[in-house]
Amino acid sequence: MSYDDSCPVCRTAEIVCGKWTLLIIRDLAEGRSRFGELERSLRGISPRTLSLRLRALEEEGIVERQTFPEVPPRVEYALTEKGRALVPLIEDMRSYGTRWLGADGDCSSAGPCAPDAVEADAPPAAVAAA
């Protein structure tokens, strides 16, 4: 099967299937966060990977970065309207996981999906297979 630029499912998958992307969106759905807060909530993600994912989401118009002129500088990340439109997709995934996969744990940012035993930058899909 080949990639089709005109297929809305392909285009959406291209964005949301990146490493950690859905978990970053899940966490930002709760409100603005600083880099360190995201890093702590996504236990196992490296700072480099988090930085790259946030930058990619910013380029896609899903996340906005706001820098405050303070010393030291404060940076916060938030979902844009385009990013908030992905939240129902995440809620549907939560419902699916509960109903069909028996995953009934806390799926907030305080309850990371990646266990400590999994490689630090492993994509969340690899976690389910582990």
Automatic annotation (TrEMBL):
What are the UniProt keywords, alphabetically?
A: DNA-binding, Transcription, Transcription regulation
Q: Does the keyword Transcription regulation apply?
A: yes
Highest taxon of the source? Answer: Bacteria
Q: Which organism is it from?
A: Conexibacter woesei (strain DSM 14684 / CCUG 47730 / CIP 108061 / JCM 11494 / NBRC 100937 / ID131577)
> Which ranges carry the HTH hxlR-type domain?
7-105
Gene Ontology terms, MF aspect: DNA binding
Name of the protein in question: Transcriptional regulator, HxlR family
Which SUPFAM superfamilies does the entry link to? Winged helix' DNA-binding domain
